[in-house]
């Protein structure tokens, strides 16, 4: 496995380019695009060319791109016109992402629920949108990973079991999973979550928390059982990018150095498992 970093680390920064050399300096060669269009100006050809050049200069690959939250919410909404428009916009982003060498698109089952009575209808809408998006990604040659949602309020996909039910209901080999350890650590268990997604795990969102809120802390700063998680991850056969999705709780340069050190510690656990 190799270390990757989500651009969530610079979520409030309007321009990603000045930060790419920091990644290269720490030997981090893979990123997930988290803020769009700020970090991925998909509709601006000149800005995209600058991003392409900067990535090449720093030796960094676009491993994953996280679909923007407003589009995820709209893709499971019951407004059919808005849902179709959100699918089309997401397909546009995915197409540009693939042209820049992007490898995996990440989305969620859908958005927030007013109450449980909305779940079945939004589940059906979200499943249809993801099926359409998966077919589009198949034609692009990139997999689609569906992530477990934050369960601190009612959301579609707020359990790993529901994510699995949605994906298995589509039955498309191009669609797999992105496991978020922080989300799974609230009310569930990241190790049990790995048992559910198994060998269809396409990518990860690695962070830690106290089991109560989504802090996006570095590993070993919360309550995730990392030795057990790394043993379970090894058992799945996963060997792709170990994508950390952490917030800037201190200077990004220090976060990156700490991320590298934590990654090496986790890899030692994996080897011993």
Describe the structure concisely.
By secondary structure, the chain is α/β, with parallel strands linked by helices.
Count helical runs.
10
Poorly predicted residue ranges: none
Query: What is the strand arrangement across the widest sheet?
Result: 7-6-5-4-3-2-1-8
At the first level of CATH, what is the class? Alpha Beta
Based on the structure given, which CATH architecture is correct?
Answer: Alpha-Beta Barrel
What is the C-alpha radius of gyration, as a whole number of Å?
A: 18 Å
Number of domains: 1
Give the strand tally.
8
Name of the CATH homologous superfamily: Divalent-metal-dependent TIM barrel enzymes
**Multimeric state of these chains?**
single chain
Query: Please, what is the average pLDDT?
Result: 95
Structure, described:
This protein has a single domain (about 5-270), classed as Divalent-metal-dependent TIM barrel enzymes (TIM Barrel), CATH 3.20.20. It is built from ten helices and eight strands. The protein has helices at about 20-25, 45-60, 70-75, 80-100, 120-140, 160-170, 180-185, 190-195, 225-235, 250-270; strands spanning about 5, 30-35, 60-65, 105-110, 145, 175-180, 200-205, 240-245. Strands 7-6-5-4-3-2-1-8 form an eight-stranded parallel β-sheet. The longest helix is centred in the middle third of the chain and has 22 residues, at about 120-140. It is globular. It starts with a strand and ends with a helix.
